[in-house]
Amino acid sequence: MNTPLAPTLDVSSTPRTPLSRLVGVEIRKAIDTRAGFWFASSIVGLVLVVLLIYTLAAPDAAKNFGDMLQVAGGVLGYFLPILIIMLVTGEQSQRNGLVTFTLEPQRSRVVAAKFLAGIALAATVMVLAFLIALVFTAVAAATGATPEWSVEGSLLFNGFVLANLIGIFVGFAIAMLLMNTPAGIVAYFVYSLILPIAAGILSALSSGFEKIAPWIEFNTAQTPLFTGDYQPSGEEWAQLVVTGTLWLVVPLVLGTLRLLRIEFK
Amino acid sequence: MITVDRLTKTYGAFTAVDDVSFVCQPGRVTGFLGPNGAGKTTTMRVMVGLTLPTRGEVTIGGLRYHDIPNPGRHVGTLLDASAQHVGRTGREILAIAAQTMGLPKTRVDEMLALVGLNDDEAGRRLRNYSLGMKQRLGIAHALLGDPSVLILDEPANGLDPAGIRWMRGLLKGYADRGGTVLLSSHLLHEVEQVADEMILIGRGRIVARGDRESLLAGANGTPVTLVTSLDNTALGAALTHAGHAVEPVGPGLRVQASPEQVGRTALGAGVVLTDLRSGGAGLEDLFLELTSADAREAVAGLAAPTTGGLPA
Ligand SMILES: Nc1ncnc2c1ncn2[C@@H]1O[C@H](COP(=O)(O)OP(=O)(O)OP(=O)(O)O)[C@@H](O)[C@H]1O
Ligand SMILES: [Mg+2]
């Protein structure tokens, strides 16, 4: 139907929405609801409370800055991914995907924006947690302990930054695959709590399984990153790559493909 | 302008939209009418890229929706006013859209004022909105980017009578300024007063199209008139004598003739008319007949004034 006088849309005055603006919108969407705001604030609050309890209860010898960071990182590890899951699944669970993807029909750009927004939020929370850990180390020093202030770079990076980033990526992948908030949160806890326990029990029962566990279970494979000398061996790196592909890359790819095709109703 | 070209959408073995072609012209309001499940929403979702067509395509001003940069600035869409995060306030919902489109914050307040949501209401969360308030917010959302094309799925849904009248004026004004407006409805009388052209769809197929007059004329060759007079018996006899089919309805008569023919007959018979109306009921009947379960084929003889595409 090529009507000769078919009026065409003059799009010269409206450039494509810049990615930075989309990232800004996604950050705003993550914290502009009561649920989102309180969840993000409670993560910081929880770090505060847990570190307070830790400072009161732990023996003086275990109040080094590195210990504080590890505790804070543990708290973040459980809750940061949920913030990301809520950010992604909200489009479907709260149905605002209809509007999001009408305003930006290039869905891959929205996925990228969410990903970057998630990392930006996580970085903010991590910095806050880092500062809180500093404060409580100072408290420990003021209350009689003689904490070690220096931290090993690999502990800081592996145990705090990398571990949390991996958790965020896994949460992101799970969220896109399931596109449902409660299911995403449950799946993340199954992945992060139940799977490693199950792998531990099976490994204890069967030495055969103990050998293959680090090749198939991501949490088990990550252990060398956070323990010992924080320097995974060559074989351990290979295990990380194999399980990372299985638990991270494959779900991320499938989840992205799903999000690109899903019919938002 | 919106061009729907041989659009088909199937879900498994079920065909929701079946080889549909039509054009919405700028400067006109196009009404998209059909009963529940006819395929109106599906067609509109394909227009904005939320649903992928099985066959055929839709272009807006010559572009596929995906290829329009910052599409909210060109195409205003209202598909489902409740498809928003219920925990956000009305103002925040508009602010997010304005930020995405790169619009100044003042635009949000302008739109809130335009659709009649006051400060207090704009600050409530969507879960506490009434149906009509959600709808007004949805209309504000569609108008936010000052688009030249409007795609509105049942915009009158939940609006009070004053709101419906306001919306009619708004859409007319929009079209008069050169905008392209497509609105869907299942209520014929809601659309016929504002639409310059109507597309009737039933079970995924277009069953008729045209303006009000050509639809009526095409129905059975004769328009329908409702008339009430001081002497219905005498008028009825005169009309029958003149060869028009007459049946009593309510306080008056329903005549298969134009209002002019009825008026002339009354003049000749010397009967005083108290009410003379073009029979909207004729269109209503036509609509029901065309879109009833077994009316899957197009009605012969109906013109397709703007498309020159398929024989309707
Ligand atoms: N994802 C889907 N899977 C299967 N069937 C679907 C799907 N989406 C829509 N349909 C079917 O397509 C048909 C057309 O639906 P659509 O929503 O377009 O109707 P409509 O004309 O908008 O109706 P209403 O006036 O009730 O809003 C319906 O029978 C609907 O059940
Ligand atoms: Mg519908």
Automatic annotation (TrEMBL), chain A:
Keywords: Membrane, Transmembrane, Transmembrane helix
Domain of life: Bacteria
Transmembrane segments: 37-57, 69-88, 115-143, 155-178, 185-205, 237-260
Keyword set includes Transmembrane: yes
Protein name in the entry: ABC transporter permease
Species annotation: Nocardioides albidus
Upper classification of the organism: Bacteria, Bacillati, Actinomycetota, Actinomycetes, Propionibacteriales
From TrEMBL, chain B:
Organism: Nocardioides albidus
Entries under Gene3D superfamilies matching the protein: P-loop containing nucleotide triphosphate hydrolases
One Gene Ontology molecular-function label: ATP binding
UniProt domain ABC transporter: residue ranges: 2-228
Descriptive protein name: ATP-binding cassette domain-containing protein
Superkingdom to which the source organism belongs: Bacteria
PROSITE patterns the UniProt entry points to: ABC_TRANSPORTER_2
Lineage, opening ranks: Bacteria, Bacillati, Actinomycetota, Actinomycetes, Propionibacteriales
Coiled coil location: none
Listed SUPFAM superfamilies: P-loop containing nucleoside triphosphate hydrolases
Family of this protein: Belongs to the ABC transporter superfamily.
